[in-house]
Specification:
Largest sheet: 5 strands, mixed
Distance between the termini: 33 Å
Shape: globular
Strand order of the largest sheet: 1-6-5-9-4
Number of helices: 5
Length: about 160
C-alpha cells in the first residue's frame, strides 16, 4: 500500500508537499516512509523518541528536537497548527504522515504477537526524535530529502 505523505521543511520558505518517493543511497533503494520507519526504530533503541502531543511540544519548545513526525488524521486541527507553528518557529524538520495508528505502531505503542504482527495499536498524533541513535542509510535518505527540499524552496 502506498502511503500518501507530505513533508515540510520550515527552515526557509514554507512547507514542501510531495508524494512519497524513492531515493537510493549506497546499495539499496528505500522510500522516505521506509527510511522514517527505520530511523524511528533506531531512535527508539537509543531512547531518543518522545511520543504524544504534550511531551513532543515540550521538546519542540525547548529546541531539543531533531525531527518531528505529525499524523494528519488527528481529530483536532489545532494540534496540527500548533506543531507546525513550533516547527516553523524553531526551524525543525517536519514530516507528515496520513495515519496516527501507523505512527503509533512505528513508535512502539503496540503489542507484538507471536507472528511478529502489531496488535492493540494505540494512536499517536505526534512524535519527536531528539536522538537518532546510530547513523544509518535511512537517516541519510531523510537528511537528503530535507537538503533537496531546501534547494527547491530557495530556487
Amino acid at each position: 500500500a502506498v502511503v500518501s505523505t507530505q513533508s515540510g521543511h520550515y527552515g526557509r520558505g514554507g512547507p514542501i508537499k510531495e508524494n512519497s518517493k524513492t531515493m537510493s543511497v549506497g546499495d539499496g533503494t528505500m522510500t522516505l516512509m521506509e527510511a522514517l520507519q527505520s530511523t524511528l526504530k533506531n531512535a527508539l533503541i537509543a531512547e531518543g523518541v518522545t511520543r504524544g502531543l504534550r511531551e513532543s511540544v515540550k521538546k519542540l519548545d525547548k529546541r531539543e528536537a531533531l525531527l518531528c513526525v505529525l499524523a494528519e488524521s488527528t481529530d483536532e486541527k489545532n494540534i496540527q497548527k500548533l506543531v507546525e507553528a513550533l516547527c516553523r518557529e524553531h526551524k525543525i524538520n517536519l514530516i507528515k504522515i496520513d495515519d496516527a495508528k501507523k505512527l503509533g505502531e512505528w513508535t512502539g505503542l503496540c503489542k507484538i504477537d507471536k507472528e511478529g504482527q502489531a496488535r492493540k495499536v494505540v494512536r499517536c498524533s505526534c512524535a519527536v526524535i531528539h536522538n537518532y541513535g546510530q547513523e544509518s542509510q535511512a537517516l541519510d535518505i531523510i537528511n537528503e530529502h530535507f537538503k533537496h527540499s531546501v534547494a527547491v524552496t530557495e530556487a
